[in-house]
Amino acid sequence: MELNDFLNPRYPYRGSDQPENMLFNANLQEFAQQVSYIATLQTNGKMSTYESYKKIKQQWKRLKKTHKQLT
């Protein structure tokens, strides 16, 4: 197992096999992983609460944008 696979696990998609659904699922998993990293940094005092909020909000906007593009 490579380090990247360990740090960023991907789980199989279980919905319909439409490409847009599979792509959104991949984006959603990436969003969840990024939020997890940001929360860990904030919890450990490496990032302020406000900065973590801004970064999560930025990730959320990116996820919404990709969702709109796919639908």
What would the principal axes of the Cα set say about the shape?
flat
Question: Which oligomeric state applies?
Answer: single chain
Specify the helix fraction band: over 70%
Strand tally, please?
0
Based on secondary structure, the structural category is mainly alpha
The largest sheet, given as strand count, sense and whether it forms a barrel, is: none
Amount of beta strand: under 5%
Mean pLDDT value: 88
Return the string of H and E elements.
HHH
User: How large, in whole angstroms, is the Cα Rg?
Assistant: 14 Å
Sequence stretches where pLDDT stays below 50 over 5 or more residues: none
Report, as a whole number of angstroms, the end-to-end distance: 35 Å
Please give the count of helices.
Answer: 3
Describe the structure.
The chain is mainly α and 71 residues long. It is 73% helix and 0% strand. The chain is built from three helices and no strands. Helix 2 packs antiparallel against helix 3. The protein is flat.
Task: Give a short overview.
This protein has 3 helices and no strands.
